[in-house]
Amino acid sequence: MNSLLDYSFQEISDILKQYGQPSYRATQLYDAIYSYKGEDKITNIPKSLISSLSQNYNFLPLTIYKELKGSDGTIKFLYKLADGNLIEGVLMRYKYGYTLCVSTQVGCRMGCKFCASTLNGLVRNLSAGEIVAQVLCVNAYLNGSRQNRKITNVVLMGSGEPLDNFDNVLKFIKLISDEHGINISQRNISLSTCGLVDKIDLLAKQKLQITLTISLHAPNDNLRRQTMPIANRYSVKDVVNCAKRYFKETKRRIVFEYALIDGQNDSFKCADELASLLHGFSNHVNLIPLNEVKERGLKGTNKHQGYAFMERLKSKGISATMRRTMGEDIEGACGQLRAKVINITQ
Ligand code: SAH
Question: How many Å apart are CA 50 and CA 43, to the nearest integer?
Fold first, then answer.
């Protein structure tokens, strides 16, 4: 069953017309569904209309199944979808507001060795409404509403490869940044991809204001192929050239994610190679010590070496920062909590 959150304001207006409703109902219904209340708590719409709509459409495509609070204030959510599948999200509190990390697929088929999301492969894509629902559900959890939004930023960095679910993700970005809905500025949205070159080119044509983040994690093909199967399809050069095209088209600075893996990609030689690869166009490197995934036997670089790597990049003129690791004590990295709960419940 589709969710009402799968639809744009215009589409909701069209649906309501089929139910013989006056046009002002669309605003009322949009307001109700974006407040993320269940059917029984909606008071601004006739009960009979709600009950006919609920025969064909889902109002709440997911609910919070489990939450874990980290010592740094980070909250990890496990949501249950209408079909019983579980997905996860992470809420991070910063000085300027709340950032929510959303999932785009149940599982993932990209197969990156360090990522727990991919351990059981891809189960299915999420619909646009199921991605919107994560934001609305947590906004409601924070006592926010459509008009009084608590979530300021959204990152598509949860489970899944966003560009492997291209149409739904594109629709999600349009829905979540629509002023009829919750109106999150596209500049406050980051989409992270393992680097599907053809899809990045397609995304560039949409002329969105979002930040594109590319998970590079290695400065050459040899190393990248050891952890990321996608590196067999696209070379590091293909990815960087495509990032340059994206920048040219959108004028948005590209962010490269680089997870520092102990003894694998964290040497000065790697830093130098990365610096020459990224030299000469507008980008930024986001370093993050790998969150250990025991199943894979890979460890994060220690703090000292991580900062030395960052300084080395900077000395070569590359803009770089070390991302604070958040939620380490609550299985903060992609797919870790879901993997754990599935293992427990299976
Ligand atoms: N599929 C997308 C988005 C999901 S992952 C992508 O590949 O970008 C979001 C980020 O977390 C990616 O940069 C991913 O490589 C990284 N990541 C996954 N597992 C991690 C781990 N164990 N430690 C640190 N970063 C990790």
Answer: 10
Same domain, 272 and 327: yes
Q: What is the pTM of this model?
A: 0.94
- Domain with residue 267: its CATH number is 3.20.20.70
Could you give the maximum distance between any two Cα atoms of the chain, in Å?
Answer: 68
Please state the atom number of ligand 1 nearest to the C-alpha of residue 110.
1
| 234 and 289 belong to one structural domain | yes
* Pair (177, 143) in one structural domain: yes
What is the rounded distance in angstroms from the CA atom of residue 105 to the CA atom of residue 84? 14
* pLDDT one-digit tens code per residue, 197-240: 999 999 999 989 999 999 999 999 999 999 999 999 999 999 99
Q: Is the pLDDT of residue 343 over 60?
A: no
Q: Domain of 272?
A: 62-345
> Does residue 192 have its Cβ closer than 6 Å to ligand 1?
yes
- CB of 215 closer than 6 A to ligand 1? yes
Are 151 and 185 spatial neighbours (Cβ–Cβ below 8 Å)? no
Question: What percentage of residues in the chain have a pLDDT greater than 70?
Answer: 94
Catalytic residue among 112, 137, 270, 334: 334
The answer, yes or no, to whether residue 107 has pLDDT greater than 60, is yes
Is residue 88 annotated as part of the catalytic site, yes or no?
Answer: yes
86-94 and 105-107 beta bridge pairing: unpaired
CATH number at residue 43: 1.10.150.530
Q: Are 64 and 88 in contact (CB under 8 A)?
A: no
Domain count within the chain: 2
334 is catalytic: yes
